[in-house]
Amino acid sequence: CDIPGAAGLEGKKSGQEEELSHCGGAKALPVSSQLFPHSRFVVGHAGLYQALAMFAVAYFIIGMTVLSVCAIATNGALDAGGAYYMISRALGPEFGGSIGIMFFLANVCGSALYVLGLVEAVVDSFGIPPVGTGVHVLPQSYWYELLYGTVLLALCLLVCLVGASIYAKATFLIFLIVAAVLGTILVSFFATRPLRVPIRLPHSPNGSETDNGSFTGFSLDTLRDNLGGGYAVDYTTGQMMSFSSVFAVMFNGCTGIMAGSNMSGDLKHPSYSIPRGTISAVLFTYLVYNLLAFLMCATCNRILLQKDYGFLRDISIFPPLVTVGIYAATLSAAMSNLIGASRILYALARDDLFGRALALAKKTSASGNPVMAVILSWLVVQVVLFSGKLNTIAGVVTTFFLLVYATVNLACLALEWASAPNFRPTFRYFTWHTCLLGIAGCCVMMFLISPVSASVSLGFLLLLLLALHYLSPSSTWGYISQALIFHQVRKYLLMLDVRKDHVKFWRPQMLLMVQNPRGSARLIDFVNDLKKSGLYVLGHVELQDLDMLPSDPLQSQQDSWLSLVDKLNVKAFVSLTLAPSVRHGVRQLLFTSGLGGMRPNTLVLGFYDDEAPQDGLARHPAFTSAREEVPLGFPPLRAPTAPKLLSAREYVGIVADALKMLRNVLLARQLESLDKAWELRRAASPPPTIHVWPVNLLRPDSARYADTCSLFLLQMACVLNMARAWRRARLRLFLCVEAGTMPHAQEEKLRQLLKDLRIQAQIQLVPWDAITPEEEEEEEGVVNFPTNTTQVSDEYVCAANKLVLEQSPAPAVRFLYLPRPPADTSLYPLYLHQLELLTRGLGPTVLVHGVSAVTSTQL
């Protein structure tokens, strides 16, 4: 924004009503120091009609933001930090910290901007060589002007070091001065007689060219001439003005609406003072802007408005007062930004978002004034003063402020959309529409004022967001993202209609029962690969009676399970329950786990055997590589001699219950011996394999490769192969053939099935001859297999186990067909015994029984 010296750089403080605890409730009334120069600059180039339109648009954007500020400020206790505090407590530490840094820099640059503007105004009036009439005693050069700026900044520092009370008194004094200047100016429009004002043009070729402006007094002709636009070259910069450039300069004077909220930590009742002070200031400045625009258009000709931004001194009934008012207001704006920056820095340091980097800024005086934050802010402002370039700083300041305002609107919008019951601001004159309009207006203005600054600011904000996301500690403020996610998930769950399910879009939704995570770490990881973007729930049953307990013991265990999920990096939910037995607990979880259309359709259990459990959690890469301890809260593993928590009959009963509830069942044996990293990353050829046996080895007479269970088994093996970590593995499908049949016809039929299902697998023929049961009877060359589990001998099962084991090379994992448990519950132990014989020594093995159709050949 090209604003020379005091012409528009006198101050940004749009006003606030402050009740300061340090001064017993003293009030500082609204102060606006940019009214005079901006009004004459805007109406001089844009004319009255366009000027009024610019003011309306600018204050519409500001008004939307003010409504958001008031809503957040009245929704609970407000502490130090102003906009930073509002944003961080609403959007979380990442947004709050990054916006806090940018708001701190905006206030720092703003303070430097006003100091430099005041220096230019003083040098214009008192500098050597002379620029106009008057006393000229101050030498001019870069270093002299830096010295003047340092002295003025030191004065601001002294006021801020004393504390908020002296600042409030100084601000009130400056308000009285500016009010007197404004009153003098208004009277001068009526009291001053028409006159000609000689204007020296600084950008003329020889520096001595002049022009004459006219103050005509109230004249209808003058007003008519100033109604339309008359854009010309800015006499201070030599640049041609346009609607956008004039609007950008004008909007630069409207970005001080956070001046009151920055002092939120020093206000006695911030939730009361900030809305009333900010709204009063906005209304006050808007009315005065429009009033001055009309008075200027009715009394000053175009040349005077365009080429002499300081003409109000010439027409004033008391010119020195105008000069004093401009100087005082600019100094007030510099102090406002300096003390605002220190409060933001203090709030950032107190929240520990940047660790030790800001530890020094936490120190305060005995009265609570953050003196170290003030000193650090002063040092940064002093560094910015070395740039000495007003235009560069002005663009950055305005862009940073607009980005902060957009984020304030975003915070209010997020709180409104989250529909949290605790968002109950006492200020109710806002909606999500006003928030959206404020965001859109701020973003448009950022790019209208300076596209380069806006792009750089957004990039800087993104870098800060990423840095804080990965480096900042977790906070207890609450995350609006969680509330928004909950709101959206609830909405979409209601839209997820189970009646519209189709087999084409089926996916596994797993419930893995875990007794102790110490012995199931690799199984948890394996099932995570099997879920294929479906629901994954870790279930656990605690054998206790709530009637006999003082409180729910599961609440204290929840954090340990959630920490386990984070460390293992699995995408799983945790569901814990109390029950008198494991079987009852699994039933509860099968009935209640999930929500709406997201419910487990597959139960996964570890295998029931006599092997001693191994602590796989301590050896898991998530802990061994990071040298971190296993999360506390999980008891030691069961000793080999200790009794089990459930019997064999109860275990098989769980399988039977799941099948009755139309849940698919997976039994995983020796998955803790699966070293996935070694199996899948070894460089040796050929790649690791996954063996698939889609035939019921305990009931070979009923085996069909196209029944529901076999197809489900094929689907699960294919899903595992589709997981990123298992894509290098190859599927090997075993086709069991009987003597006297046509194996090639069966192979071709199976190959066509795999083609229809888009499953890539190698088919290997395996003869049944070696495992023909002792009870077989040959009738006309046909082998008759047993029709009941009780008729299968252990020798037959061991032979089947040997057949599976002999297939080389050894696979990474095997998938076998899981027979349905017998209807007679007295046969449950025998059923489990035969499963143990079948899978003995096979290494990582998954027994699969499917009850739902999961494959489709349709498009």
TrEMBL record:
Which Pfam family is one of those matched by this entry? AA_permease
Record-level Gene Ontology MF annotations? potassium:chloride symporter activity
Does Amino-acid biosynthesis show up as a keyword for this record? no
Q: Which GO terms describe its biological process?
A: cell volume homeostasis; chloride ion homeostasis; potassium ion homeostasis
Transmembrane segment boundaries = 48-74, 95-116, 146-167, 172-191, 240-260, 281-304, 324-349, 370-387, 393-417, 429-449, 455-472
Q: Amino acid permease/ SLC12A domain spans which residues?
A: 35-511
- Listed GO CC annotations: membrane
Q: Which UniProt keywords apply?
A: Membrane, Transmembrane, Transmembrane helix, Transport
Query: Where in this chain does the record put each SLC12A transporter C-terminal domain?
Result: 522-610
Q: How does it sit in the membrane?
A: Multi-pass membrane protein
**Any idea where this protein resides?**
Membrane
Q: Which PANTHER family match?
A: SOLUTE CARRIER FAMILY 12 MEMBER 9, SOLUTE CARRIER FAMILY 12, CATION COTRANSPORTERS
Similarity comment: family membership: Belongs to the SLC12A transporter family.
User: Know the name of this protein?
Assistant: Solute carrier family 12 member 9
Q: List the taxonomic lineage.
A: Eukaryota, Metazoa, Chordata, Craniata, Vertebrata
